[in-house]
Design a protein that fits this description.
The chain is an alpha/beta fold and 232 residues long. 33% of the residues lie in helices and 27% in strands. The protein binds S-adenosylmethionine (SAM).
Length: 232
């Protein structure tokens, strides 16, 4: 557990320092450039997830956890009557805020491992966050999500499949040990949490904890799921 505390702290420092270069990963630029063919497949898979999100018709009070620079905030805005976005990094939040300065979004700067929402939501979204939740915090994280949902509410998540070519060219091979070594453009190194889930096993695990729904994949790069609390 003390190890996890340290990893969580490194992870926060890593994302704070990475904020200005975060979009390079999404856009497949610089160290993440693996050629035009891969970029096409990556972008097509992201489009598939945008469609999957739209297909479940998010609505009402929406909460985005670990919002980052806003790659998914933009897809939540049209559906929300109220949008709340949480992230631990003020740098990430500032980039997000600048992108959507004409939109009413409530930003909360908080560590998701201690933050507890003060209201309830119809739809809770988190992308590329679950993989960064240490195994020791998996259950408490999902309990926090459960507690923050209104009756009939849903949680939607997107995350990474273990595809070696999704990471930067100068990163080590991805491993299944729940950790990853990351570098920033200036060469600084960080160790963070990174779990790669098998979609069927994750679905089973969540169903075993009282969630209804499915975990699917886009094939090569991503997994996603839409779940509701079967107890509510
Ligand atoms: C991989 S990024 C995902 C960003 C965004 N959801 C996206 O899909 O582009 C992970 C995000 O988690 C945030 N984060 C890291 N540790 C956190 C923590 N303990 N509490 C809240 N947010 C955290 C980072 O600042 C970063 O914005």
């Amino acid at each position: 557990m003390s190890d996890d505390k340290e990893l969580i702290q490194h992870q926060i420092e890593y994302y704070r320092a990475r904020a200005a270069e975060y979009d390079q990963w999404v856009n497949r630029e610089f160290r993440y450039d693996r050629g035009e063919e891969q970029k096409k497949r990556w972008m097509a898979a992201r489009k598939d997830m945008e469609k999957a999100l739209a297909d479940v018709h998010p609505s009402g009070d929406i909460l985005e956890l670990a919002c980052g620079t806003g790659f998914w905030t933009v897809h939540l805005i049209p559906f929300a009557t109220r949008l709340t976005a949480v992230d631990v990094s003020p740098e990430m939040i500032e980039i997000n805020r600048q992108k959507f300065k004409d939109t009413q979004i409530e930003y909360i700067e908080a560590d998701l491992f201690s933050w507890r929402p003060s209201s309830k939501f119809d739809f809770i979204f988190f992308s590329f966050w679950l993989s960064h939740v240490p195994a020791s915090h998996f259950d408490s994280f999902w309990e926090m999500v459960r507690g923050a949902l209104k009756p009939g509410g849903r949680a939607f998540f997107i995350d990474s499949l273990m595809t070696q070519e999704s990471t930067a060219i100068n990163h080590a091979q991805l491993e299944k040990d729940g950790k990853a070594k990351r570098k920033l453009n200036d060469g600084s190194e960080y160790e963070i949490v990174k779990h790669f889930y098998d979609p069927a096993k994750l679905e089973q695990r969540l169903q075993g904890r009282g969630w209804t729904g499915h975990v699917k994949t886009t094939g090569e790069f991503f997994l996603y799921g839409c779940l509701s609390d079967s107890k509510k």
